From TrEMBL:
It comes from the Eukaryota. One of its GO terms (molecular function) is ATP hydrolysis activity. InterPro entries: AAA+_ATPase, ATPase_AAA_core, DUF7025, P-loop_NTPase. Keywords: Hydrolase. This is P-loop containing nucleoside triphosphate hydrolase protein. Coiled coil: none annotated. Residues 227-271 are annotated as: Disordered.
Amino acid sequence: MAIGDEFFDQNPDSPLTHFVFKLDELKAHLSDARSALSNHSGEELKTKAHDLGRLDSLSTQSTEQDAQQYLEELVNQLDVLIPLVEKEFEPISKRLELELSYGHISFDLLIYYFKKGGKYHYESWGEKLAFVLDGTSMDSSFRILNINGHGMMWDGHEYVHDTRVVDIPRYSGTKALSDLQCKIMQDDVHNELTERGRLYAAVSGVHFKSYDGRRVVIDENGYCGRDPESSRDYDDYVPPRSNRYRATPPPVPGYGDARPDSPYAGDNSGQKSLEFPEDQLYLLPVKVHGFDIRDKTWETIDVRKLEEIHFDEHAWDHLVLNKATKALIKGLVNVTKTTNATGEVFSDVITGKGGGMIALLHGPPGTGKTLTAEAVAEHLKRPLYVLSSLELSTTPATLEKKLGDVLRLATTWDAVVLIDEADVFLEQRSLHELERNALVSVALRVLEYHRGVLFLTTNRIQAFDEAFLSRFSIAVKYPELDVDARLTIWRKFFELAGCELWGGSGQPGDGRQSPDEFVKLEGQEPQCYVSLADLKELAAKPFNGRTIKNLVRTAQALAMSSDEPLSLEHVKVVVEAQEKFLTEFAKIKL
């Protein structure tokens, strides 16, 4: 193929002045051809002729003389073509220079203004996006200039090139450069986008973060996998003309398949961020996709609003549970962070089975079962994925898919999973309920291969199928709260509400309180005072832990509505209302 054939094949109707886009390339070819004629001979000369367009120069029939003749003709033709192109382009060049000196440009000059390989940016949905220009073209009506370039993005597995297209409709007269949809990259914008890109690169892979006060898991691969038909649908951010490709040009070398099996190491750092070339950070976008752990929804997230999570360091201390049982649970969940020599979580002797911790928590409502899972997640600094039995299907096929999908995500995220009220698929099998038997079998199979931390809660342990017993790493019974346990819970919730507790018969500050009856709120000014005697009176009432939490929260809301600090009087009003409701409810049941 001769020099320039490709250009003419792709642009058959282009004027000679459009050859200016290839001028630098032509000059380089001319220099190479002259150098080859001066410095090479024999096979080397034939190789140079091949590289410069004489594709048959390496065949056995081709001679050194053929190669020399081709290169001499190439030099002669380029010696004519290059000055001709420069002469033809000179009026356009002067006109372009004049218009640019005034900061304006005509539509027909845009194809010469935007240069291949240049750095540009445009606005998409109110955000700047940068790209390297790959080329320009006119649409079939010659009324729209298509500017084609590429940026970079993380696709869940690797950094890939991201096609970016800007369309500029034809306009009359001239337009200010500052009003163009696409602008040349200036240093201040480049620096801004580089810093933004640094934030984007920092959350490539899987990361557990805080976003607008909510906890989210950043996971592009998880987002893409949620629905194959829309796995890369960014219509909420990138214009429809934009698309992705991975073959041309290729992914950034050295950045593929870098995800470890376990993205966490028991802290909030998440997966280690993959290194990304400093000089390309400006090409990265501003949006990533993350999963809202509480609402269980995928969201488009601005990387500038992501923050580190402030975990509750005292969550484990708030758990009212037997000390030995707490120590056992803590020890078992800590073991799930241990890895063997191959870097995999310790697992069953059969490859792929188990390796995690499945705990059954059973007992009456409000005794601390859910709080245990929450405390473990806070202790491990991991996401907590709460799954209600209502979210799981009662048909075997659907249950297997739903539960399997959740546990796969949880394994990728190293999340703690809580399946609340798991009775629906763990009940005893019987000879007469074939579908329920299938449901139990599916649950057994899925749970058996889970590698993470999983909690199951139930109020009906007596209905469980015995086959599950061997699957549990630990089963913990939560008894009805006694007076001492309720006292501890009341005390902790008052502490969290900012109340200082005092005892004895005196008043706060009179020196008559017993020292061991104080709870000091370090660094906090107490908003109210509650006596130990008051706490004992409240603890005598048969409320469970969840009810106590709700009572204190409601009392706080009552105080806020009155623009007053929380006091015991607010609590008493709420407690009285609750007792009245329970009395009426008991009468109705009778």
